[in-house]
Amino acid sequence: MSIIRRPMNRRSLLKAGAASGLVLATPTIISRSAWAETNFRNDPTNSKTVTFGFNVPQTGAYADEGADELRAYQLAVKHLNGEGDGGMLSTMKPLSLNGNGVLGKKVDYVTGDTQTKSDAARASAKRMIEKDGVVMWSGGSSSGVAIAQQSLAQEMGVVFMCGLTHSNDTTGKDKRRYGFRHFFNAYMSGAALGPVLDKEMGKDRRAYHLTADYTWGWTQEESIANTTEGLGWETVNKVRTPLGAGDFSQYIAPVLNSGADVLILNHYGKDMINSLTQAVQFGLRDKLVNGKNFEIIVPLYSRLMAQGAGENIKGIYGTTNWNWSLQDEGSKAFVKSFGQEYGFPPSQAAHTCYVQTLLYADACERAGTFNPAEVIKALEDHQFDGMGNGPTLYRGSDHQCFKDVLVVKGNENATSQFDLLEVVEVTPASQVTYDPEIFGGELGPYKV
Amino acid sequence: MDAIVLQILNGLDKGGAYALIALGLTLIFGTLGVVNFAHGALFMLGAFCAVAFNKLIGLEQVVVDPTKTTAWGTPLETRVPYIEVWLGDTGTTMLNYSVPLSIAFAIPVMLLAGYVMERGLIRHFYKRPHAEQILVTFGLAIVLQEIIKTYFGANPIPQSAPDMVRGAMDLGVMLGFDPGTVVYPQWRIVYLFFSLSVIGGVFAFLQFTTFGMVVRAGMADRETVGLLGINIERRFTLVFAVAAVVAGLAGVMYTPILPPDYHMGMDFLVLSFVVVVVGGMGSLPGAVSAGFLLGILQSFASMNEVKTILPGIDQIIIYLVAVIILLVRPRGLMGRKGVMET
Predict the structure, then answer these.
(1) Rounded CA gap, B72 and B86, in Å?
(2) Which segment of A55-59, A114-118, B251-255, B301-305 scores lowest on mean pLDDT?
(3) Which of residues 315-374 of A touch B (CB under 8 A)?
(4) What residues of B are in contact with residue A312 (Cβ under 8 Å)?
(5) Given phi > 0 = left and psi -120 to 50 = alpha, else beta, which region is A82?
(6) CA dist B127 to A398, B121, B233, Å?
(7) Chain-centre distance of CA A30, in angstroms?
(8) Which of A244, A281, A332 is nearest residue B187 as measured by Cβ atoms?
């Protein structure tokens, strides 16, 4: 036996390298493949129930809207589990759900409080994912909060079904593979409002924007200004106002003598209530400028918020995702279910949350698994009907729903405390559809 | 020029609210030496006195119409306020004037709230450090907020000014400007005069009554007044209650301007403290003048011409002024020597 070791030549080095590489890589290849097919975070296969998370603002300025969202989620869970009258399960098409939970598992849920703060929402969602084992979570009512949660969804590999969020960024530059939005967006509001504004106010107008200084306000201002400028309107000024300013009088006073004959309030929630109330108090609606009646526009309306503005909303134009007065079968079924359960009609926030829950559950049934990668594929480019907005497409390239948009105005002859908005026009989905490239963004991978 | 007049008016009515809240804060601090972070909550409580009063006199008779149903299948309910059923047009007028009428409801409620707060909680913290006073009063503010939210919800609840003063008036014509250039909401003008009257009333009370004289003496030298056999603590309790009433009335009359919600007190609290610091701790005239000054500056800072030169100035102007005043006059505009100084 020779004790002299031969020096390693190039061929043997390559052989040894390849062999070692194969040995080292084999377990990884096997395990990754196994994870992709059977293992995913919070896999409920061995459980009799599946848990959803509902993360809504339970405290803070949007607490009432959050409460309405929560009511809708609870109703959706009831219907999924075969309780109650089934709501939209009787009108949803196509339908794979059969009222015995999802994939044979009873649906359970946990709730969280976003406080309408991104960090609180992420912390609450993380608790739901890590501690409560949710396979999906959902909630609104702020775009900043929704975007923050979408990012978390992508990091954690758990689907997030957005509640009320209206910024273009949610399914634009900040879109994520694990985030889906049923609610419409600022671009669609502009596209839907355009023809109505043209008809009602003409082409020769001068608009003044007051805009909430955060992501949603910026995108709405941009979308509405693009629309109105497209009509031939001149934009006199765009003024950013701090979120939660309370008294907007110092921002409204300059509008009086600016030469503008239209005030566009890119505000939502409490800001909308305050700025609209104060604008009306300043006599803007009684003013005659450039020989025309001064007009106020609130591009994003919410019935809950309209209640806060009282009679000041009368005759003021805006858009909304859905209204309880719609007479299609899906809306009627939902309003009946919700009204009988709670004694009053649902808000648009409640509607979108209810629909999102059913859509997710239905996608699981169609995919035959809770594996998020497969559920996402089942939701992408899915077309459905019977859920209150006419035929709808969940576009795969940006996870945005395309459906009819309602142009509404504050009801001048309200018949009840809930009859605040009058539907002026139902703008068809084709008129509000756009190329996803205009807002950029990357969805990211299916597997994380 | 018309834009400047508008912003001055704006600043004055905004300043009116700041001054009323800051006046109460200063009164409490000057007499009791307590830094009351629950004072904003008293403003909010006052606003909800107006809401509660409106709800009380607006209690409705519900008539079920079995022939009609709602969209969700239950019988339709028609609602008419009892007060209209019982009193006819007088009832309608009372509903129309519910905000000014609620002052009569707010005064006893706020007096009681102030008395209970002072006797039940605040008095136990007179000799404790300011940090502890701040913590306990801030906690109290949160408790009051949550109570209001539980009963009234989180959404703002609109309150209307009486029809007679609901619209805007053309002040430009009176001031020699072109018609329609200086148009201002009538209720805001009412609010400005109301706040000036309340401020005047408080000063007159302190200046021209024996009670006020004793309170002023107590503010200057508590020990000597005590040695003269006067129970200054009892009087200070009443001062706390009066301060609560002033904040409450400011809140009542502000409801048609800003639909009240449970958080509105917090929005005003920080600003009011800045007003007190700028005016000078413990100085009543300082608090009032600083209230109006900061209101006007805030309005001017929001003008587009100013924001073009200094973007974002509207959001920091109040704090910027506070920093400058504290650098130049560390005791504030009218601060007294020895207050908060050891």
Answers:
(1) 32
(2) B301-305
(3) 324-325, 332, 335-340, 343, 345
(4) 158
(5) left
(6) 62, 13, 13
(7) 38
(8) A281
Domains of chain A listed by start with CATH number: 49-184+324-402 (3.40.50.2300), 187-320 (3.40.50.2300)
Q: What are the tens digits of pLDDT across the range B68-91?
A: 888 888 888 888 899 999 999 999
B162 min Cα distance to partner chain A (Å)? 12
Q: Are A155 and A448 in contact (CB under 8 A)?
A: yes
Report pLDDT digits (tens) over B213-248.
988 888 778 788 888 888 888 888 899 999 999 999
B237 Cα to chain A: minimum distance (Å): 32
User: Which chain A residues contact residue B2 at CB under 8 A?
Assistant: 257
**Which residues does chain B have within 8 Å of residue A242's beta carbon, measured at their own beta carbons?**
314-315
B341: its two tokens: 């100084």
Model-level pTM? 0.82
Spacing of C-alpha B309 from chain mean position: 33
Across A50-59, A105-114, B279-288, least confident range: B279-288
Is the pLDDT score of A382 beyond 90?
yes
Contact A55, A138 (CB under 8 A): yes
| Residue of A239, A307, A336 with shortest CB distance to B155 | A307
Closest by CA to A348, choosing from A415, A403, A414, is A403
CA distance A127 to B332: 48
DSSP string spanning B194-238? HHHHHHHHHHHHHHHSHHHHHHHHHHH-HHHHHHTT--HHHHHHH
Using an 8 Å CB-CB cutoff, list chain A residues near B154. 59-64
Q: Would you call B73 and A339 a contact, using CB atoms and an 8 Å cutoff? A: yes
- Across the range A200-227, mean pLDDT stands at 92
d(CA A224, CA A185): 11
Among residues A230, A222, A284, A232, the alpha carbon closest in space to that of A258 is found at: A284
pLDDT over 60 at B342, yes or no: no
Tokens for B204, please give them: 């007159």
- B2-328: CATH topology is ABC transporter involved in vitamin B12 uptake, BtuC (1.10.3470)
Q: Report how far Cα B278 is from the mean position of its chain's Cα atoms.
A: 18
Contacts with A237 from chain B: Cβ below 8 Å: 304
Look at B181 and A257 and tell me if their CB atoms are within 8 Å.
yes
User: Which residues in chain B have Cβ-Cβ distances shorter than 8 Å to A303?
Assistant: none
| Beta strands at A392-394 and A382-384: parallel, antiparallel or unpaired | antiparallel
Contact B261 A281 (CB under 8 A): no
- Whether pLDDT at B55 is above 70: yes
The answer to whether A399 and A73 have CB atoms below 8 angstroms apart is no
Which residues neighbour B267 within 8 Å (Cβ) at sequence distance 6 or greater?
A244, A246, B40
Residue with token string 């300059």: A254
B333 in Cβ contact with B276 (< 8 Å)? no
Interface test with A, best of B155, B186, B253 (most A CBs within 10 A): B155
Domain ranges (residues) in chain B: 2-328
